[in-house]
Automatic annotation (TrEMBL):
Pfam families registered for this protein in UniProt: Abhydrolase_6 (PF12697)
Name of the protein in its database record: Alpha/beta hydrolase
Claim: S-adenosyl-L-methionine is one of the keywords in the record: no
PANTHER family assigned: AB HYDROLASE-1 DOMAIN-CONTAINING PROTEIN-RELATED, ESTERASE_LIPASE_THIOESTERASE DOMAIN-CONTAINING PROTEIN
Residue span(s) of domain AB hydrolase-1: 6-218
């Protein structure tokens, strides 16, 4: 099969900026890469799960040829909804992401909100409250500070709305468990990963696109070409660094 394009979907509170080191690393390997900005982050008025999924689907519909979608954290829910019935999507990569089924929402999966969420019902948003340990526990102080300057409020409806479709039932999927994650405990990730076609591990916290961008890029490339797309190595690609187990 031909080399797939890769679409990157960020998680809650973040934006396309979080892929700023991963995207060029994948492009160096010969991939066409698109990072999608979700309207559920920082918008006024805030978007919802439906508008986030629509933003991803518009990108997918504009891409010619096979596509592998990689989503982080909350972005896994968006990807699950947006890729249902998408004829050119050949694979899904859940990066320490919520891999839920029809009728489930992020709030229903989480249960009690963690202490680093600050819910502002009157504004219909969720803000972050001292999230450094949960989201950036293996990042440098400089990486953490830069990220904290760019995070934005997250739309509360994006967490509350249930999935209407679950594409992983029909599309090959890989789950990347981040073994030092303090935001989504690895045991919870492993439970969700039992639904995936393939499972890998990274020895990172919740934000490997910041702490280990090259290693993450290597793994996404390997999954996109050899696991999900059923093809061979990308022409002139440098050797894979591989994932840690």
């Amino acid at each position: 099969m031909s080399t797939p394009s890769i679409v990157l979907v960020h998680g809650a509170w973040h934006g396309t900026w979080c892929w700023s080191s991963v995207q060029p690393a994948l492009e160096e390997r010969g991939f066409s890469v698109i990072a999608v900005q979700l309207p559920g982050v920082g918008a006024a008025p805030p978007g919802d799960l439906e508008s986030d999924a629509r933003a991803v689907r518009l990108v997918l519909d504009a891409v010619e040829g096979p596509v592998v979608v990689c989503a982080h954290s909350y972005g896994g829910i968006v990807m699950t909804e947006a890729t249902a019935g998408a004829p050119n999507v050949v694979g899904l990569i859940y990066l320490c992401a919520f891999m839920l089924d029809v009728g489930q929402s992020l709030l229903s999966a989480v249960g009690t909100p963690p202490p680093w969420w600050s819910i502002h019902a009157e504004q219909n948003v969720i803000r972050l409250h001292e999230p450094e340990c949960a989201l950036y526990n293996d990042c440098t102080p400089e990486q953490t500070m830069a990220a904290m300057q760019q995070v934005r409020p997250q739309s509360l409806p994006t967490f509350a709305q249930p999935l209407r479709s679950a594409s992983w039932h029909d599309i090959p999927s890989a789950y990347v468990v981040c073994d030092r994650d303090e935001a989504i405990p690895p045991e919870i990730q492993k439970a969700m990963a039992t639904q995936a076609s393939h499972v890998e591990h990274l020895d990172t916290g919740h934000s490997p696109f910041l702490s280990r961008p090259r290693e993450l890029s290597d793994l996404i490339a390997k999954l996109a070409v050899t696991v999900l797309n059923g093809g061979g190595p990308v022409t002139n690609a440098r050797p894979l660094a591989g994932s840690r187990r």
